[in-house]
Amino acid sequence: MFQGLHVFDFLVFIGRFQPFHLAHQAVIQEAFKHSKSVIILLGSAQPEEGFSETSFRADTKLESCESRTLKNVFTATEREEMIRAAFAPEQQSQLHFAGLVDVFNDKKWTAMVKQAVQEIVQQCSQSDDSKIQNKVGLIGHFKDQSSYYLALFPEWPLVELDNYFHLSATPIREQYLLGHLPTLTQVPASTLSYLMNFQQTSSYRALQQQAQQSLKV
């Protein structure tokens, strides 16, 4: 569909990455074939309650709300670290991150995504007075009904991909919280190392107790 290198200046990849797995990594590697930079928007970065519509900033680390749940195990900062570790330094410099607040209104959420992307693009521009129009696109695949958001940005050309490796973070996360580490056919070595280290924390042990009660058959 898109021929040649660097058709885009920025490709936007939206996800929760709980945890980051091989399919996510493959999408980002594919994005680098088409774009100079990749913007990764981390969903479920903080709860909506207690935050105004204008409180979001693309450079906010969002560490003030670290309440962990069985669905949201890792903070935005931790997920950024996990993702960066899976790429070479020269690629890491072209990865740009922002957190997205969980909101349940498409119009509000779409505006937030556009705001995050706009701020990152502006930060990466050499000059605010530059008249060069950066070309922004969206990358992803229609996994299920939750992927409908890909159609909410008609102004951004879509690089649509297959579901690499047919992986989903949900079963990986659920098994991990029950004490079963994923394999290298599911996650990058850097993610596996991150998960092993996190297993040694009190946060993991607390979540594991919850998982044993609610997820175990």
Report on the architecture of this protein:
The chain is α/β, with parallel strands linked by helices and 217 residues long. The protein has seven helices and five strands, in the order βαβααβαββααα. It has a five-stranded parallel sheet with strand order 3-2-1-4-5, sandwiched between helices. Strand 1, helix 1 and strand 2 (35-46) form a beta-alpha-beta unit. The chain is globular, with a radius of gyration of 17 Å. The termini are far apart.
Round the Cα radius of gyration to an integer and report it.
17 Å
Overall pLDDT, averaged? 87
Question: Roughly what fraction of the amino acids lie in strands?
Answer: 15-25%
What is the CATH C-level name? Alpha Beta
Distance between the termini: 44 Å
Task: Return residue spans where pLDDT drops below 50 for at least 5 consecutive residues.
Answer: 50-65
CATH superfamily caption: HUPs
* SSE string, helices as H and strands as E: EHEHHEHEEHHH
Structural class: alpha/beta
- The overall number of domains is 1
CATH architecture: 3-Layer(aba) Sandwich
Protein name: Nicotinamide-nucleotide adenylyltransferase
Keywords: Nucleotidyltransferase, Transferase
InterPro entries: Cyt_trans-like, Rossmann-like_a/b/a_fold
Pfam families: CTP_transf_like (PF01467)
